[in-house]
Specification:
CATH superfamily: SecY subunit domain
Number of domains: 1
CATH topology: Preprotein translocase SecY subunit
Strand content: 5-15%
Radius of gyration: 25 Å
CATH class: Mainly Alpha
Number of helices: 17
Strand order of the largest sheet: 1-4
Amino acid sequence: MTTSLGKVPELNKRILFTIGLLAAYRVGIFIPTPGVDTVALGGMLDAYKGTMLDFASMFTGGALEQFSVFTLNVMPYISASIILQLLTAVMPQLEALKKEGESGRNKITEYTRYLTVAISLVQGLMIAVGLESAAGPAGESIVIAGGWGFRLSTMITLTCGSVLLMWLGEQITERGVGNGISLIIMAGIVARLPAALGNTYKLVKAGEMSPLLVIVLVIIVFAVIAFIVWFESAQRKIPVQYPKRVVGRQMAAGGSQYMPFKVNAAGVIPPIFASSIMFFPATVMQLMGQDAPWLDTLLNPGGLLYNSLYVAAIVFFTFFYVAIQMNPKEIAENLKKNGGFVPGIRPGPNTADHIDKILTRLTFWGAIYLSAVCVLPTIMASQMNVPFYYGGTSLLIVVGVAIDTAQQAQSHMLARNYDGLIKKGKGKHR
């Protein structure tokens, strides 16, 4: 028995709540930070099309061109999450907090918020100093009036914008549908799609881009989307056997089940983490006007050095994220406590080693998949001389977040069905 979307009032409220907060985020994109000539800034950014600045603008949803209050987006929060997760793996105090349950996780979340504010202040200062030394296409100053007044106002404005987005993301996760932080990034990427389609039409009409190239790009996009959907649903099922047990005065039947492990258990987190690590330092250096041949190679999303560092970061964060989310020893201990075992494998350490080997292999192929999707379309687009930035990272985030959000919506509908069956059963019993 299934339930249509319109018959689940709670889910409808969650969806409307999510759409409302995402709409508020898009409105904030057009609120500029005071003290900056956005026309001169836009002219300077046009000179860096196809570089890391264009890549950073994709993640901010166009906030960088407007130099909006949301220019930092959720990247400080993501950076803070990376730092806290790294520290949790090496600091016993944080690891003990994580094992305390809900109270411990709330404490770590509180530390993440404080660190987000600190990172936002530092990044705001770096951007303000960089803009003071930058110039527009005609040599005009981008900053209307420099000095510590401009720096402090920029730091406070950008920090408040980043903290507000962090709060919006947490509210969406708690009271809406899907992961709020991922949805905010997705909304920024999707918001640039109409402009990208319009620019493509203009390029084709002006003869700067052949219709055949557009058709090839469309085919590549749909092929990448199909590959992402197929790979995101791929699982490795480990069989688990449960013996018969005595429950009260009755014998409970045993049975065979399975533990599903996704090939890409890390989801879109590794590309988001890797992108946040890669683009911000390079963006600040470009805003400060520090050009060098090696820097241009690094800042080119299709360059060999950039792609190598990007792939290395994706692989690292894939293994790291899976390692902190899934502990083979804990899985094996829980199986042993419940009387379950993997057929042919002894319970305890042998089961943990077996699960660890499977997770390592799955994580390896998951890292290869993420790296290929994020890098190969970019290389192909650069080889075909596409006159705008096109990358698989944006496709991966949009499709991955859409799949995750749809699964959460389906979970709410299944829960509604389950509650309805229980109520009907109680009514018949009475």
